[in-house]
Amino acid sequence: MIEARGLTKRYGKTLAVNDLSFTVQPGRVTGFLGPNGAGKSTTMRMMLGLDNPTSGEALIDGKHYRELRHPLRKIGALLDAKWVHPNRSAYAHLRWMAVSNKIPVSRVDEVLDLVGLTAVAKKRAGGFSLGMSQRLGIAGALLGDPEVLLFDEPVNGLDPEGILWIRKFMHRLADEGRTVLVSSHLLSEMSLTAQELVVIGRGRLIAQRSTEDFIHAATENTVKVRSPQASKLRDLLAGTDAALRDDADALIVSGLDAAQIGEMAAANQVVLHELSPQRGSLEEAFMQLTGDSVEYHTELTETVDQLVDVNR
Amino acid sequence: MTLLAVERIKLFSTRSPWWCMGLALTLMVGFAALVSGSADSAGDVSVPVTQFGYSFALAVILVLATLSVTTEYRFNTIRTTFQAVPSRTSALLAKTTVVALVSGVLGTIAAFGSLGVAMLLQPDASLALNSEADWRQVAGTGLVTFFAAVVAVAVGVLIRHTAGAVSVLLAYSLVAEGLVQLIPRVGDDIHQWLPFNVANRFLTGNPDVAVVFEGPGASTSTLSPWAALAYFAGFSIVMLLIALVTAKRRDA
Ligand SMILES: Nc1ncnc2c1ncn2[C@@H]1O[C@H](COP(=O)(O)OP(=O)(O)OP(=O)(O)O)[C@@H](O)[C@H]1O
Ligand SMILES: [Mg+2]
């Protein structure tokens, strides 16, 4: 289990992480979701004892990272696939990591096999493609057969095949009972990978709940209604607990479904020109949630474009 | 012991340390061959003369030791290191030990190799190590390169960038200390206590024995040779402590 308690990190004037508290449970994949600059990587660095929190703490099964005796056997992490010396072989890279935590060196061959890098084990890591580097990073994370795993944007830049491979891998790790925390700025990706979501924006916690609930709540259905007797319709609806919103010449109703609205209109002899159920989309939901908390608006536009692309 | 093995694997699993070691040896032994081979008579070749290439080898060893740290920062493997070994002090002490030992052995081999090649090329020269001063000059090289490597690792940890750390170290040890002498009145007094100048005192001993342009330069320090080594070692340890405290405090 991972626990963040009031975790706060300030870099000069930037408050990167702001009083963040959440827990990550074993046995499922937890998505750590937030737009660019939300503080995901900073939070993960603090969990690994690399950055010192300005205040608050991160605990791994109740302990600070620095108190772990052989940390690689407890928690494996892939924060950045490029954190490898380019002239060192994949094998040598994993070997020194294994030796440092008294992990049998035979395990190096095992994890290389697991991620499918056996053939290039003795090649210099600098020549690896992004997908291969990512696999090497995962091999490093799995080296100590840890119960807890952290991955920072593991699918960034991968092709669809690579993404699928990683997604299946995460599920397998969680099914084995491990605690898996995966960050991403793509809700659409996380909706396929994670069973639980921790959503942050501008360093603050926005929501923590199951992906299903999150998407259900986020994509709440609405009904679009157009009527020449708009004011009469409005009065009728105001008598219910439905929420109303204007959209050009139409009304957007939430809290009632199309059948209920149609029957109410017929009973009161209101003419309807349009009665159409609207489905909210994931990307709208994500934007609504993190809307005020996005740091760079240009990057947000990119995020939305990517979301739309992935959904297609 | 485990951590020493880790640092040994890291150091020798990339190419640059091998290049640096080869270069340091080639420079020092090569200069010894050049100087003794081109001497007019065997009488011109003495023990200090065989150590002509010392400062070049020292410079390369400083680079080797600096790189062992700064490449870790450059490629962020320092983060993987601290992830694997959360006690930064232990991890950096292990690295310092391994790099200093390698540098010490390398300095020793280079110094004796230089003496050996001179003996081969000038069999008639009197190159036997007869005095304590002769021994210190040759066998002492390894001790100086050991502590010089400690200084270089510390500077690497503090500055973190290869270019910055290497230029500071080389400019300081090769140029800056000498320039201090140009400061009017106090220059010489300060220079006397600057660490690399003091380290030369250990190697060259009394100025009347030292040959100014050959090997480690004559030193203006007035310490006894062994006190000079202790001073240089103390300096390297203070630098290392500053580096360890700094590394522990800041974000990796
Ligand atoms: N070492 C640092 N020094 C100064 N500011 C930093 C540092 N690291 C991160 N920041 C700032 O902290 C904020 C959070 O950054 P962080 O990298 O944690 O976000 P992120 O959620 O991982 O974003 P992304 O999706 O882009 O990876 C940003 O404003 C960033 O500029
Ligand atoms: Mg990030």
UniProtKB/TrEMBL annotation, chain A:
The keyword Manganese does not apply. PROSITE patterns: ABC_TRANSPORTER_1, ABC_TRANSPORTER_2. InterPro entries: AAA+_ATPase (IPR003593), ABC_transporter-like_ATP-bd (IPR003439), ABC_transporter-like_CS (IPR017871), P-loop_NTPase (IPR027417). CDD domains: ABC_BcrA_bacitracin_resist. Residues 2-227 form the ABC transporter domain. Keywords: ATP-binding, Nucleotide-binding, Transport. It comes from the Bacteria. Belongs to the ABC transporter superfamily. This is ATPase component of ABC-type multidrug transport system.
From TrEMBL, chain B:
The keyword tRNA-binding does not apply. The keyword Metal-binding does not apply. The chain crosses the membrane at residues 18-39, 51-71, 92-118, 138-159, 166-184, 226-247. Keywords: Membrane, Transmembrane, Transmembrane helix. Coiled coil: none annotated. Pfam families: ABC2_membrane_4. It comes from the Bacteria. This is ABC transporter permease. The lineage of its organism: Bacteria, Bacillati, Actinomycetota, Actinomycetes, Pseudonocardiales.
